């Protein structure tokens, strides 16, 4: 069984957007005569963040509520460690390129959060009653 990466990109439009934004950050940094490699690294940290978040969502669905909470907490700590660790490594290796990495991370992460909220709204009010929806067990949000 072969895996076609183009099929994966079609199923994951957010990944395609993040990769395009990462390339865009590198191009903008190059046009501004800044360090495009560190800008690309900063933007790709959002791709790593997204990948860990997707993995945690898939693994968390497979068990009980306690399992899901444990996976969510570990995933959050791991995402934070990857992002902060990546930015610290960039700062230690190339201090002058840290600004590009940080700015590209913030720009791509902000766009990612907007897309994530658009794709997965936090709460939708029931239009007929004006109440928040409840889960299948009858528990309120």
Task: Describe the secondary structure blueprint for this structure.
Elements: H1 5-11, H2 13-31, H3 36-60, H4 65-93, H5 98-119
Helix pairs in contact: 2-3, 2-5, 3-4, 3-5
Task: Describe this protein with a few key phrases.
141 residues, mainly alpha, 5 helices
Total tally of structural domains: 1
Mean pLDDT: 85
The fraction of residues assigned to DSSP E strands is under 5%
Contiguous helical run count: 5
- Please provide the count of β strands: 0
N→C terminal distance: 42 Å
- Largest sheet data: none
Shape: globular
Flag low-confidence runs: none
The helix/strand class is mainly alpha
Rg, alpha carbons: 18 Å
Task: Classify the oligomer.
Answer: single chain
Helix/strand order, N-terminal first: HHHHH
* Proportion of residues in helical segments: over 70%
Structural overview:
This protein is mainly α and 141 residues long. The chain has one domain. The protein has helices at residues 5-11, 13-31, 36-60, 65-93, 98-119. The protein is globular and about 50 Å long. The model has no long low-confidence stretch (mean pLDDT 85).
